Amino acid sequence: MAEARILNVAEALREATDVAMEHDPRIFVMGEGVSDPKAIFGTTAGLAERYGAARVMEMPIAENGFTGVAIGAAIMGRRPLIVHQRVDFALLSLEQLFNNAAKTCYVTGGHHTVPLVVRMIVGRGWGQGPAHSQSLEPLFAMIPGLKVVMPTTAREAKGQLIAALEDPNPVIMIEHRWVHYATGHVPAGRYTVPLDGPRRVREGGDVTIVATSYMLLEALRAAETLEKAGISADVIDMAVLRPFAPEPIVDSVRRTGRLLFIDTGFRQFGIGAEVVATVVEQAFGSLVTPPVRLGLPEHPTPSSRALLTDFYPTALSIIDAAAALTGIEPARIAAPRAALAAELAKLPVDVPHPTFRGPF
Amino acid sequence: MTTSRAGADLPDLYRAMRRIRMIEEAVAVRYAEQEMRCPVHLSIGQEAVAVGVCAGMRPDDQLVSTHRCHAHYLAKNGDLKAMLAEIYGKAAGCCGGRGGSMHLTDSTAGVLLSLPIVASSIPIAVGAALAIRQEGRDAVAATFMGDGSIEEGVFHESMNFAALMRLPVLFILENNLYSCYTGLKDRQPRRPFVDLARGYGMPAEAADGNDVEAVREAARRAIARARAGDGPTLLVFDTYRWREHCGPNYDNDIGYRTEAEFLDWKERCPVEQAHRRLVAAGRHDEAAEAAMTAAIQAEINEAFAFAKTAPFPSPETARSHVYG
Ligand SMILES: Cc1ncc(C[n+]2csc(CCOP(=O)(O)OP(=O)(O)O)c2C)c(N)n1
Ligand SMILES: [Mg+2]
């Protein structure tokens, strides 16, 4: 077996863009900061130097305008990749995305396609506050004509972005800023990970745990601890929100009888709402207990860390929800849970990584 | 009638700028303590625009600012303790810790809102002016806008609307030559900014953004027009941000601009220019300077002590005020 190539997700996304651009001269990058010294948290680093300003285009602060420009170019057969530093900034471009990117293929009876990729990043921590931390994936996932992906591991992130750049349809990639720090083995060169639905990342038989993006990393930590208490979780990465392909989740619930969904965004009207509804419709008879959803509460993200103590689901709240779902005695989980709690307490709630010093 | 600093003389303007400079320098120094855990966009180097414009504004005049709002808020007499407490994430902050440094607000001082999404604040000021008009008052609204914000569609929509309705608004274009790490020439064609107003049949005026008296005079004329019912004005001020886009450090070494350019602008420091002018006119000396900065430093120390020791908001309150 080849030696492991360990990259983090930010590096994997950079490599994906590089590989795809080398392969397909029609691909070009647009965004505010794509060629600046920070290079969108490193995800576009070196691309402007390698491909030039004509293919790595610094943008004015004009999200709706340049998204429309990208769609126009895409209809003409070019392959734009737009990058936004925050989901919150992409909000200005929803008109173009929802009315034009998502509908042009349909309205023209398949005559035109819109091969556009839009990356946007969910902020979290260091007081980002109400307008720099929104995880609004359901907004995009509800629109037919868009594909919506949330990468979580480095290998998948690279393969999904290359697949998105080769796809004839508009693909929205929503990245959580804290996922950028996750490391893993990433194969060299070109490969794709299909944009076709959820995938199992851990096998188990007692409870099905499904999560999006960063919450998958919390869920995996929870699953390790649950294992120590004798609960085996079937953990599924939602990965692709649209096209919606619930079969792996439904199949899993048919085996476990229990479903826990963790949203990176809001709990109400979240991705979990659609998944739970679908499982109830298709596998009602298999459920031994009502499904449970975790996600963000019903208020904006406050800036102060003091107000965030109960805001985000954590491995601990996932453990508690899974323990309640499976009905195990609290005493059985107490020791491993306490060990994890002690480990988590070492890092403040508002930083993603021990090396982080702010401000972004 | 509420009081105005419209007649503010150079010593007042100088003191206001020096105070803002010292406050922001203190934020920069103490940021490393890792207790101000939110992004900060410092206005060091840009004090003259904030102070010169606000000199002619009354407390009932409304100001709407951006992510880079500290100087605007302070120049309009926003409460210092409430600002620092907000940056420290405390309950006594101007937003109770909900907003952080990009959301400064102070209704008593007429700081309506600060908003971190670029250009998002521009139509809010136009709306404030509409409300003032509907209420039949002679107050005005001002929106501070970075050079980047005029690239957004909503800037143009707001200019058109304000001109059409002849609303009492000041569009204050604070051109510091950069949007984050991208220079103006990579984002906009070369043309005089004042021409933007011509497209909407709106008067415009440009002045040296590092000369506080020039700023004050230009703003005074625009405010007078707005109060008289003669509609909006675009004011254009060139200035320079000394430190990194976001955070406490200098970043002239990372490659998007040169140390020489920075030093050139530093030479034209708005605070020092005003200081030199006062000294040359025999209206200020070392003793006066020492007394003034000592008083300001005492105020700053007290405000930081307040912010650092103030209690955090309790977590349950995170849920309140979603609706009014
Ligand atoms: C709609 C939107 N796009 C992008 C951003 C990210 N952003 C924050 S500040 C900034 C630069 C703004 O430049 P300018 O308007 O000149 O203000 P300055 O920072 O120079 O004061 C950018 C691009 C944002 N906050 N909102
Ligand atoms: Mg600027």
TrEMBL record, chain A:
Specify the protein name: Alpha-ketoacid dehydrogenase subunit beta
One GO MF term on file is: oxidoreductase activity
Which of UniProt's keywords are assigned here?
Oxidoreductase, Plasmid, Thiamine pyrophosphate
Q: What is its cofactor?
A: thiamine diphosphate
Tell me the ranges covered by the Transketolase-like pyrimidine-binding domain, including all copies: 7-181
Tell me the superkingdom of the source.
Answer: Bacteria
Coiled-coil positions? none
Q: Which SUPFAM superfamilies match?
A: Thiamin diphosphate-binding fold (THDP-binding), TK C-terminal domain-like
Pfam families with a match to the protein in the record: Transket_pyr (PF02779), Transketolase_C (PF02780)
- Which PANTHER family does the entry link to? PYRUVATE DEHYDROGENASE E1 COMPONENT BETA SUBUNIT, PYRUVATE DEHYDROGENASE E1 COMPONENT SUBUNIT BETA
From TrEMBL, chain B:
- Which GO MF terms does the UniProt record name? pyruvate dehydrogenase (acetyl-transferring) activity
Q: Where is the Dehydrogenase E1 component domain?
A: 16-316
Catalytic reaction(s) noted = N(6)-[(R)-lipoyl]-L-lysyl-[protein] + pyruvate + H(+) = N(6)-[(R)-S(8)-acetyldihydrolipoyl]-L-lysyl-[protein] + CO2
Q: Which cofactors, by name?
A: thiamine diphosphate
Q: Which UniProt keywords apply?
A: Oxidoreductase, Plasmid, Thiamine pyrophosphate
* Any one Gene Ontology BP term: pyruvate decarboxylation to acetyl-CoA
Question: Which InterPro entries does the entry mention?
Answer: DH_E1, PDH_E1_Alpha_Subunit, THDP-binding
Q: Which CDD domains match?
A: TPP_E1_PDC_ADC_BCADC (cd02000)
Q: Which PANTHER family match?
A: PYRUVATE DEHYDROGENASE E1 COMPONENT SUBUNIT ALPHA, PYRUVATE DEHYDROGENASE E1 COMPONENT, ALPHA SUBUNIT BACTERIAL AND ORGANELLAR
Function, as annotated: The pyruvate dehydrogenase complex catalyzes the overall conversion of pyruvate to acetyl-CoA and CO(2). It contains multiple copies of three enzymatic components: pyruvate dehydrogenase (E1), dihydrolipoamide acetyltransferase (E2) and lipoamide dehydrogenase (E3).
Protein name listed in UniProt: Thiamine pyrophosphate-dependent dehydrogenase E1 component subunit alpha
Q: Which species is listed as the source? A: Azospirillum oryzae
Q: What is the lineage of its organism?
A: Bacteria, Pseudomonadati, Pseudomonadota, Alphaproteobacteria, Rhodospirillales
